[in-house]
Amino acid sequence: MLAPVGWTGLGQWAFVLAAFAGLVLGVWQIDRQRRGRPVSRAGIAAVVVGAVWALLQAALGPHAPVALLADMARNLAWLLVVYALFARDGRHESVAPVRPVLIVLAVVELLQVALLVLDWRFAAFPVARAMIFQIAVMLRLLVITGALVLVHNLYAGAMTAQRSAVRWTCAALAVIWGYDLNFYTIAYLVRGTPAELVSLRALAALLGVALLAAGAVREQTTGRFSPSRTVAFQSLSLLVIGGYMLVMVGVAQSIAWAGGSATMLTQLGFVFASSVLVLALMPSGRLRGWLNVMLSKHFFQHRYDYRAEWLRFNATIGRGGARGPGGMTSGAGDTVPLHTRVIQAVADITDSARGALLMPADSGELVLAARWQWPTLDVPAQGLDAAGAAFFETHGFIVDLDEVRGGIDHRGEAQATPVWMIEEEAVWALVPLLHFDRLVGLVVLGRPAVARQLDWEDFDLLRVVGHQLASYIAENNGQLALLEASRFDEFNRRIAFVMHDIKNLASQLGLLARNAQRHADNPEFRKDMLVTLSNSADKLNALIARLSRYGAGNVEQLAAVDAVAVAQALAGRWPHGASGAQVVVTVHDPCTIMANRETLEQVLAHLVQNAIDASPARQSVRVELRSEALHGCIDVIDTGTGMSAEFVRNNLFKPFVSTKAGGFGIGAFEARELVHAMRGRLDVESREGLGSRFSVRLPLAAAAALSPPYSQQDVA
């Protein structure tokens, strides 16, 4: 063990090094602030005051009045830092109960001035000075205990994704005040400040500066503070700290009663051993996880403030405008679709910054319906196959993708999860949306800024929210179905008027035919007959122009059709197109399919015309033909404006929804129905700003007897 002079020398050098490091850190932070970087002024002041304190400790010793005043100033400066962190981003109004606590701690710390005056006044009375020392140490213990409680609440109350903004400062304060808690506890028990502990205090100050420097280097965001449930966290903190102090007092007092020359060494050994034990146990993930679940589930308040979560959930689902900075909503012109709000409502719970929504197609697989703040996610046309969708519908299991990647398989979710999700590291969790045991959607959550393992409370809350969101989606689907039915009723009423006009024209023509039998030789009659026929033809043409230019087609008569010849003949209709476009046919494989030629021409003409309309002027439209297993595939590809996943899912194949002025909006719907009638399928892949691909898949003639037809309910 070092001699007293050795400990004193070590302490002086350590204090000098801590002062130098603090001044360097302070100057660097001031330079960062001058360059416009977000730096806390309270933090700079505390670091500089701490450096001055360390310098005075090295020069004058720990008992000099000026050094004691510097010690008081350092504690007040760090209390100001704690308040600044609570009040970050101007949110101090939401943590108003913290201010009275800080004021009380500051007043108690300022009492050290009065004790210094009393110590000077009664310098000639050793008994009085000993009592003043004990009072000063006890007041320091009160201040440090309260400060540690605040530091604990500051870190524990921060949102999971935002703790990185306060982690390093809280760690530094925990080291500085944590050591002071032990230092003043022993000083109170032995009625003095051993040189050994003073030297180690300098090392603790140096470690605190190092943690602050590491935090300043790694800090990337300003972060925001979210207040905790104060009563529960403060109760837990006071209980832990109070129990620790009782153990320290009891053990240290027992050692002091035992006496002997090894008393001080034994006390230091106990402090070291207890610190090592705490540092060894606390990093244990299993221990911390078990304590967290047991305390949260059976004793203390839960992780989530369910009232706040429910209010936020309803605000997200109920609003129509996009949320901007500060949580404000934009106007009605920026209405957010329901599916996007569904993703955000789930993502807010886990602090995920992005997500996507998969919804069932008519054939059972899941396809991309919407995405939120995740434009880079590459989702295949079939996001999840029918077997995977059946798994989520049967089990309602919330999947943690990190567990799947780690080889953990609870209920077979590893086999149900598609490969592209497992390979995409940014995909973090899958939340099924069930409505009366029917899967209406699957929310794909992106990895939050600070990823963590989902626990029982996350699963419970996500499961409840998933059921609620599923009911909203089901209700929305029902409303859309009713709206579509009403539009069909409106269409039927319009057709009734058309049939009335046709009936009138038919009556006129029938009357003209009967009169022609009697007056065919009359020149005047023939002249009137030509006028009537011309007017009837004009009326019919005008009537036809108001209807879709495509008919139903006789799709029942299927035969072997050379799709290459059909495509090449179709391309000849647009040698350069009205807008300068050109249709380019590319043949990868011979493609003889089972179809009705006129119907196939009708479908492809519609798709090519739409591709030309969506493409820039003089931009080519490609028609590619190839064979895929038992089916022939005809792709119509453009590089135009493209469509969003929401539009493809909700509007593209819905009747009476048209982006063209005066259009009926039944062209895409009719094309898909005609392809289905020929026992085929129409798939769509589109990206906004990149273009679209419409794929017509029909059975090959050579394999028609072997190929099972697509269901009439298949949806692209």
Structural class: alpha+beta
Amino-to-carboxy terminus distance: 80 Å
How would a textbook summarize the main sheet?
5 strands, antiparallel
How many β strands by DSSP? 12
- Assign the CATH architecture of the largest domain: Up-down Bundle
- Could you tell me the CATH topology label of the largest domain: Rhopdopsin 7-helix transmembrane proteins
Key features of this structure:
Rhopdopsin 7-helix transmembrane proteins, 716 residues, alpha+beta, Beta-Lactamase, 4 domains, 5-stranded antiparallel beta sheet, 5-stranded mixed beta sheet
Structure description:
- The chain folds into four domains: 4-298, Rhopdopsin 7-helix transmembrane proteins, CATH 1.20.1070; 313-322 and 332-480, 2-Layer Sandwich (Beta-Lactamase), CATH 3.30.450.40; 499-545; 559-703, Heat Shock Protein 90 (2-Layer Sandwich).
- 58% of the residues lie in helices and 11% in strands.
- It has 22 helices and twelve strands.
- The chain has helices spanning 4-34, 41-60, 65-86, 98-121, 126-156, 167-190, 195-218, 230-258, 263-281, 285-298, 306-318, 338-349, 386-395, 401-405, 413-416, 419-423, 456-519, 523-545, 563-571, 597-614, 645-650, 667-677, and strands spanning 355-360, 366-372, 399-400, 427-435, 438-446, 559-562, 583-587, 592-595, 621-628, 631-638, 681-687, 691-699.
- A five-stranded antiparallel beta sheet has the order 2-1-5-4-3. A five-stranded mixed beta sheet has the order 7-9-10-12-11.
- A hairpin with a 2-residue loop joins β9 (621-628) and β10 (631-638).
